[in-house]
């Protein structure tokens, strides 16, 4: 069942144990995908452990923590038509990479396929899966699943060439909702993003995470995305809604301060989306408000 259409890309930072578990699971896949790992400046021996236990993995060592840009670095090395992202604490289910590649082969206007997420160790469905299934984004009837306004980098297969052409993940966003900007730029290029319920990725959340920093970056990145791509009216509404719904604490204050300090480059890079893509975002807003509130308070 070897399938040479997809390369798996993983970024990691100081999660040696979790990454080795993920690489063990990926090595068991019947598709036998090539795997590229970008070690974002780990200091816990991650890179040496990968080289020792998984010499078949292509290991990139940029020497510092690039955040999501570590994926960009890896995708430069990808020679297959499709790239599957997963985190160092998640792994693809057998057959799902082939299923995603088949779907992308059959639908040349689809750029990304996001899978169902199963939370381990109990095998329960991630609550966000319901939001993906019930996405309000309108799409043409030929789409193989619900149309999405964005994607989850830890659970998505994309066309590698389209990813590179769109510029990949923006270096300033680092990590935390970094997918949103890339997703709308892909949509503006005429691509469709979809959810596929028959594909599965497993997620066993690492305890080695800074939830406070991630929340700060998530709020900041949402504000940056909003002012980089949305018209003034919707941008103001989303900013005010965010200000009302995030916790009133130091983390939120720092996020808004960082976002405001970036105004000069935001104005330089601001590019409002085409009307049809903006319409999709407006349809997403009611569901998005609840989802964002959970992300930023959790």
UniProtKB/TrEMBL annotation:
<dbReference type="Pfam" id="PF00535">
    <property type="entry name" value="Glycos_transf_2"/>
</dbReference>
<dbReference type="InterPro" id="IPR050834">
    <property type="entry name" value="Glycosyltransf_2"/>
</dbReference>
<dbReference type="InterPro" id="IPR001173">
    <property type="entry name" value="Glyco_trans_2-like"/>
</dbReference>
<dbReference type="InterPro" id="IPR029044">
    <property type="entry name" value="Nucleotide-diphossugar_trans"/>
</dbReference>
<keyword id="KW-0808">Transferase</keyword>
<protein>
    <submittedName>
        <fullName>Glycosyltransferase</fullName>
    </submittedName>
</protein>
<keyword id="KW-0328">Glycosyltransferase</keyword>
<comment type="similarity">
    <text>Belongs to the glycosyltransferase 2 family.</text>
</comment>
<feature type="domain" description="Glycosyltransferase 2-like">
    <location>
        <begin position="7"/>
        <end position="131"/>
    </location>
</feature>
